[in-house]
Amino acid sequence: MRGNPQDRMRLIDGPEALFIFQYTMREAIHINRIFDQVIQKQSQRVTKATIALGELSELDPNVIQQHWTDLTRGTPAEHAQLHIRLIPAEVQCMACFSKYQPIEKKIHCPHCGSFGAKILTGEQCLLESIETEHE
């Protein structure tokens, strides 16, 4: 297989054709973990799940949405809406210790010009809430 070695192919047999979806391992691991949390806690039909996703995360919201749709098929969360709330990034410069929000995901201090920074927020991916049919 060409491309990133962290990519994997997932084959799904459809009634009329064979569909191929490509996910990175990182996205698959995160969305599988969140899906497991949703299914383990719910005996009722899930209507909505909200994920908090940091803007510096390397996860693609569109791929997460597609993977969610595939995973939930035939489960209590099958028609659940997946809402992705983006968390703004904040970093702290390691040279001048100023805190700032990166522009276009670029870690470059606007105060001193340094490229070294500690990421304070913006890389996370977590399940924030679940709504069920009876809520």
Description:
- This protein is α+β, with helices and mostly antiparallel strands.
- It has a domain at 7-87 and 124-132: hypothetical protein PF0899 fold.
- Helices cover 21% and strands 36% of the residues.
- It has helices at residues 25-41, 61-72; strands at residues 7-13, 18-24, 46-54, 81-87, 90-93, 99-100, 117-121, 125-132.
- Helix 1 packs across helix 2.
- The protein starts with 6 loop residues before the first strand and ends with a strand.
Strand content: 35-45%
Which outline best applies? elongated
Distance between the termini: 46 Å
State the order of secondary-structure elements, H for helix, E for strand.
Answer: EEHEHEEEEE
Helix content: 10-25%
CATH architecture classification of the domain at 7-87 and 124-132: 2-Layer Sandwich
Q: How many H/I helices?
A: 2
Brief overview:
The chain is an alpha+beta fold and 135 residues long. The protein contains two helices and eight strands, in the order ββαβαβββββ. Helix content is 21%, strand content 36%.
What descriptive keywords fit this protein?
about 140 residues, alpha+beta, hypothetical protein PF0899 fold, three-stranded mixed sheet, three-stranded antiparallel sheet, 2 helices, about 20% helix, disordered N terminus
